[in-house]
Amino acid sequence: MYQYLLLLDTEQEREFFQKMYHENKNVMYYTALSILKNESDAEDMVHETFLTLTEYISRMIDNQPKKNWNFILTVLKHKCYNLYKKKKQEIDKYAELENLAYPVAEKPDDRVERLEKQELMIKIIREMKPSQDVLILKYYHEMNNIEIAAVLGETQDNIRHIYMRAKQKMEKMLEKYGIINSYDI
Asked: Contact at 8 Å (CB) between 81 and 153?
């Protein structure tokens, strides 16, 4: 905490920041952890949020506690979602490495067919821009609707609707390509 205090100009700002830090650090950590599902990343995002808050502390001093909490939460969630998106892009880059996880005993023809279907599924999901994140979290990361809603900052009902529409669209696309029976949607 002392590293943050060094960034502040007045004693009033330092006292206010200390109080804010002690009141909010644990809740901020658990909020970040619920979004990122990684302790180290959650700690980093809380730290980055406090660094950002030092820049706005003079404006926060006169605000109501609820307004300050809303600001803190907004900054924290924004940082968490940005990190999540960055990690998601990295995962997408290396998603093809999953092919190595299949057994060596697989027949060459079966492997070619599976890879073709897998490439087609990736192509279909990439074409489904509005619901792409929901599908990736659902199928690739095996998250449920509650977890997806927390990560994307949406309501559980909205995630359910997005998923249902995406599932219908995906079924039509798979039917078009003649492989609807190959995947359990």
From this structure: yes
- Phi/psi zone of residue 178: left (φ > 0), alpha (ψ -120 to 50 degrees), beta? left
The predicted-structure confidence for 157-174, as pLDDT tens digits, reads as follows 988 888 888 888 877 877
Q: Provide the token pair at 60.
A: 């926060």
**What tokens does 24 get?**
């909010």
Gap between the Cα atoms of 18 and 4, Å rounded = 9
Upper half-sphere CA count for residue 178 (Cβ side, 13 Å): 2
- 37 φ, ψ (degrees, to nearest 5): 60, 30
User: Are residues 166 and 131 in contact, defined by beta-carbon separation less than 8 angstroms?
Assistant: yes
Q: Tokens in use for 118?
A: 């897998």
Q: pTM surpassing 0.85?
A: no
